[in-house]
Design a protein that fits this description.
With 420 residues, the protein is of the alpha/beta class. Helices cover 33% and strands 25% of the residues. Helix 1 packs parallel to helix 7 and helix 4 packs parallel to helix 6. The protein is globular, with a radius of gyration of 21 Å. The mean pLDDT is 95. The structure holds uridine-diphosphate-N-acetylglucosamine. The site of uridine-diphosphate-N-acetylglucosamine (UD1) has 21 residues, from helix 1, helix 5 and helix 6.
């Protein structure tokens, strides 16, 4: 696996156009299977998870045309010929579980392995499977392979024990083609769920209430093609804002949506960063001379502080004056960045689901290991502010969700190189 070399101490500043959202693009790509003719997607992020999802679509018989220059994709699923996805592909990317709902909705059968993904704790799919069974899906599981069939997709009133993003999305995909009405109580309210619902609606689905805890779906028999633009990635945006704030640079981002950023901006405001929204989706950030701490952060489902931003926020707090308590409530093992940050001179103590970050005056370069996507990004951000050179291993994880992050940081004044 490759690594990044970072010469720290340079400001990240200037203008940054946020790319399309990974977590919105992946379920929408799976949903393309339900549309029985051509879909055009604009503003697709050119990241490894998108490339892998395109591979899955092609394996299933879809024609996919990617234009990297315009970041657009044309997906034609008229020649869909397969309902099996090989386990190796599925294990490389957890979001491939969404192909279960999409394939069952389209072909009434699907065979795939248990999903993999980042190592951030146990990531069961019981909520997905339990909902599917209630909707008439017959699930056989042998040697880690899920073999599913659904003679009739039945609408159902479902209650999720936890507002799981993936389970809500998978149910949306299946329910779009169900006989009758499905209601998801305690549904995830994440903006990426909203994006998927809007895409499905553009294809002819009947969906109401996305963005609230109760979503109603009235099944239809056919979905058609559509044109859709992937919304900006709130986590990529937050990553670059943290990098700028930590290196004391001013940053202007373009594309972010205000309502999606509230929890992150309010936490960053407590460190002394100032924000101004200009012309709708342009956000200007000015960092303080000295970052402040002395508050606590708890991650939670939207609209609470996003778990995906927790590692990045931890990097920011390493240099903030005071102590911050961070509690992770969404995933059970998500402080793997703390190790690398401590090697760079940070003072972090992890105990179970809580981390205590005591601000230090400076960080120094080190050789560290990014063990998952956001962990790698958090270490990169810290390395940008550290004195001297850092080497961050595990670039393949970062490339899953960030498009050429080394170039993007370098264009904003950083000194980052990828050694493949
Ligand atoms: C999605 C995002 C991920 C983000 C997460 C939470 C994508 C591709 N990934 O992941 O970046 O960190 O939402 O915002 O969109 N759970 C169960 N049983 C289930 C499903 C989930 O117990 O059947 C638990 C998980 O173990 C986890 C929690 O619920 O502890 C949240 O998971 P979920 O919201 O489903 O996250 P993902 O969809 O996997």
């Amino acid at each position: 696996m490759g690594y990044y070399i970072v010469q720290g101490g340079k400001k990240i500043e200037g203008d940054f156009a946020v790319r399309g959202s990974k977590n919105a693009a992946l379920p929408i790509l799976a949903a393309c299977l339900l549309a029985e003719d051509e879909v055009v997607l604009e503003n697709c992020p050119l990241i490894q998870d998108v490339f892998l999802t395109i591979e899955i679509l092609r394996e299933l018989g879809c024609t996919v045309t990617l234009s990297e220059e315009s970041r657009s994709l044309i997906i034609d699923s008229r020649n869909l010929s397969e309902t099996t996805i090989c386990s190796e592909t599925v294990q490389r990317m957890r979001s491939s579980i969404l192909f279960l709902g999409a394939l069952l909705g389209r072909e009434k059968k699907a065979v795939l392995g248990h999903p993999g993904g980042c190592c951030i704790g146990k990531r069961p799919i019981d909520l997905h499977l339990c909902a599917f069974e209630k909707m008439g899906v017959v699930i056989r599981e042998k040697d880690g392979i899920l073999d599913c069939e659904v003679p009739h997709i039945l609408g159902y009133h479902l209650y999720l024990d936890f507002p799981s993003v993936g389970a809500t999305e998978n149910i949306l995909l299946l329910a779009a083609k169900a006989e009758g009405v499905t209601v998801i109580h305690n549904a995830a309210r994440e903006p990426e769920v909203v994006a998927l619902a809007r895409f499905l609606r553009a294809c002819g689905a009947e969906i109401y209430g996305e963005g609230t805890s109760n979503i109603m779906i009235e099944g239809v028999t056919h979905l058609h093609g559509a044109y859709f633009s992937i919304p900006a990635d709130r986590i990529e945006g937050g990553t670059f804002l943290c990098a700028a704030a930590l290196t004391k640079g001013e940053l202007r981002t373009k594309g972010l949506e205000r309502e999606q950023m509230e929890a992150v901006l309010s936490a960053m405001e407590q460190t002394g960063c100032r924000f101004l929204w200009e012309k709708g989706d342009t956000l200007w950030m000015r960092p303080p001379k000295i970052l402040r701490s002395g508050f606590s952060i708890t991650t939670g489902p939207f609209p609470y502080f996003p778990t995906d931003m927790q590692p990045l926020m931890m990097s920011l707090l390493t240099l903030a004056n005071g102590t911050c308590m961070m509690s992770e409530t969404v995933f059970e093992a998500r402080f793997s960045q703390a190790d690398g940050l401590c090697r760079m001179g940070a003072d972090i103590c992890v105990s179970g689901q809580t981390a205590t970050i005591r601000g230090v005056e400076k960080l120094h370069g080190a050789e560290v290991y990014g063990k998952d996507l956001r962990c790698g990004a958090a270490l990169l951000v810290a390395a940008l502010a550290a004195e001297g050179e850092s080497r961050i291993h595990g670039s393949a994880f970062v490339e899953r969700g960030y498009e050429k992050i080394e170039d993007a940081f370098s264009l904003l004044g950083g000194n980052v190189r990828l050694e493949a």
